[in-house]
Structures are given as C-alpha cells and as structure tokens.
Amino acid sequence: MTASPSLNGSGGTSWSYLNDELGNRTSRNLQANNYNVTAMRYDWDVLNRAKNIMQQDKGASYYYRADGMRVEKVEGATILWTPNGSRGSGTWDANYAQNRPTTRYFYDGQMPMEEDYNPATGGGVSKVTRNLLGARGIDMISTTTSGGTAVAYPIYDGHGNCIATLAKNGTGYTTGNWRSYDVWGSVRSGNATGDPTKRYCANLGHQADDESDLLYMRARYYEPASGRFVSEDPLSDGQHWFIYCDNDPLNRVDFTGKKSSVFWTTSLFALATKLITEFGKDFSDGGWSVKRVLMKTSGGLVQAYVSTWGIKAAWACVKASIDIIKANGWAALFLSVIAIYTCVLILMLDALLIGGIEALVDHLAPDPKSGGMNW
C-alpha cells in the first residue's frame, strides 16, 4: 500500500507510504515538513521485525526473543525535523529521550502472562500486570502498584474484543473501560488509549500500542485504521500478503499474524444456521438434505449389523479351523482350508450386502439436484 485516505478523521488529504524492497513500511508522510503531525518512521532489523516506530511526539523501540516474541518495549523514541538549507528541505532524524519508560513482557507459550512497567531509565518497576489464562484466553487481569492490587475481569463480545471490565466493589460489582469497535479494530466509542492494553481480539492476547496506533499480533504489527499489516506475511499465505483476515475480519481472526482462521463461534453459528435452513427447506419446500441424511443413517445402521454378522461368522470359521487342527492334527489341514475359504466367502457376501444396501440408499434417497427421488 502506497497511499490511503487520511486515517485520523481529518478528511481530505491522503496519506502516503514508502516501503523497502522486502515489503516493510518505512515511512508515513515523511516527505512533508515539520508541520505535518502525521509523519511516522519505521525501522526494521535483519529479520524483518519492527525495531523502532516513531512519531514527532511519541514512539518506541522493540526487542524480541529467539522465537520472535516481543519481550521489551522502550518508549521515548521520537523523530525530529532537521532543516537542511533555507528552502524548506530537511530530514527526519531519530531522537531518544534521556528517561525512557520500559515495559517487559512474559509469556506462557505465546500467550501474555505478565508484564512490568518501569517509568524511567534506572528506576524501579512501578506496575506489574498479571493475566490469568483460561478457556477464553485472558480471564482475569491483576494489576499491582504501590497503592495495592486491583483485580478486573474482561468482558468480551462475540468476536473476543474486550468491551468492558468487571471489578468487585464491596459487596457488588462495577463495570468500566467501556469500548466499542468497528470490524477492523478501530475504537468507535470509549477511550482509544490507556488500560487495558488488550482490546481488539483481546482474548487472543493481542497488544494495543498507543505510541504507534498499531496492534502487536506476534509475528507482525497490524494497523486497524487501514485494515492492513505494515509488513509482508512471513508465510506468504494467499495472494495478498498485507491484508488482514482475508478482508473478512467479522468472521475470521489472526492468532499469530501469519494466517487467519475462521472464528470458532462463527463456525458453530454457520453450522447451526445450515441445519435450521435445511430442516426448514425439508418441511416447507421439499428440501433433500435432511431426508438424505436420515436415509443414509438408517442404511448405515443396517450395514453395521450386517458387517458385525459377517465378522462374527468369519471368526467362527477361524475358531473351527483351529479346533479341527487341535483335535485331528495337521492331517485335517484340508478341512481347515475349506473352513478358511468359507470364511472368505462369508466376508465377500458381507461386502456385497453392504454395497447393495449403499446402492439401494443412494437409489432411494432424494436427488440433490432435482430434489426428487431417484426412481
């Protein structure tokens, strides 16, 4: 992507982007002068991981462990317009603050389990956030500061987005941090920044970075405002390596930043809808699917009975052969061979019966194209 409409709600002026030869976004509106507050610079390491993402008033540097999971974010990295001559030309240079707030991340596998925050270089940790992991992902958030420990429970919508938090208040409970999202993940109502930092697809552990307006999705960074990742898919999955969730964020999620998958509630809903639809067709306008399933099931039960009979009969022949050999010695081998051939014939008969029943069911079941019977 080299351009888009303005993404900050100002309207009118479009935004422009530059990318390196590997597909990593390197700049947004950097060709403008220092009056352009939307300018942003992206730096990448040799493994195509974001190293610095910086704006004029905020930004951060990022560090990763061997498997690519981010383990540290150091804020206080910004860009500064440096004029070059008197004709308005210049460059955007990196500027690092003396005190740089640092957040460290700890994981259970790839799910965020704990993070601590140090507000200044050389200082101590002032906040520790721990996540209780459960069936929905993050089931409880415990935040410890100098003032004590606060516990909150995230409330998710059907897509796994954190729309609010629930906290105990005396003998009752209160809710807070209410937010709503569009399908791409941008906050539509509520605070666009601040805690909790797990918001869109929060149950998957995706981290919202307020300094870059991006979502950290493990392998890549996603921009909700444009609906695109800012770097190529490392798996080169599909034909477009920047789109998010195959352009279907309502029904799909991306757990790793590499490949989207159908959201499990969407799959169950689709299955239930299909069953209800087919039953409705069956009883309203002669739909064939339910009839066919019922007839196939009945045929399968008959086949199972026939197959059980065949296996039992074959095993009886084998046991009879063994008994004959034990009683009469190997002289009775001829009788044993006859018994084995009988066993084979029984199994063949069993197979013919099963095949015949299957063919009969196919013949009697409604035809999927015409909706009528096959006779």
Please give a structural write-up.
- It is a single chain.
- By secondary structure, the chain is an alpha+beta fold.
- 25% of the residues lie in helices and 34% in strands.
- The chain has 3 helices and 24 strands.
- It has helices at residues 264-284, 289-328, 333-364; strands spanning 3-5, 14-19, 25-28, 40-44, 50-55, 59-64, 70-75, 77-83, 90-96, 102-108, 111-118, 127-134, 137-145, 148-156, 162-169, 172-176, 180-181, 187-189, 207-209, 214-217, 220-223, 228-229, 252-254, 260-262.
- The strands form 5 sheets. It has a 14-stranded antiparallel β-sheet, with no helix packed on it. It has a 4-stranded antiparallel β-sheet with strand order 19-20-21-22, with no helix packed on it. Strands 8-9 form a two-stranded antiparallel ribbon.
- Helix 2 (289-328) packs antiparallel against helix 3.
- The longest helix is centred in the last third of the chain and has 40 residues, at 289-328.
- It is elongated.
- The protein starts with a strand and ends in an 11-residue tail after the last helix.
- The model is unreliable at 371-375 (pLDDT under 50).
**Uncertain stretches:** 371-375
Could you say which overall geometry the principal axes of the C-alpha atoms support? Answer: elongated
Percent of sequence in beta strands: 25-35%
Encode the helix/strand succession as letters: EEEEEEEEEEEEEEEEEEEEEEEEHHH
Instruction: Count the DSSP helices.
Output: 3
Quaternary state of the chains: single chain
What Rg, in angstroms, do the CA atoms define? 32 Å
Residue share in helix? 10-25%
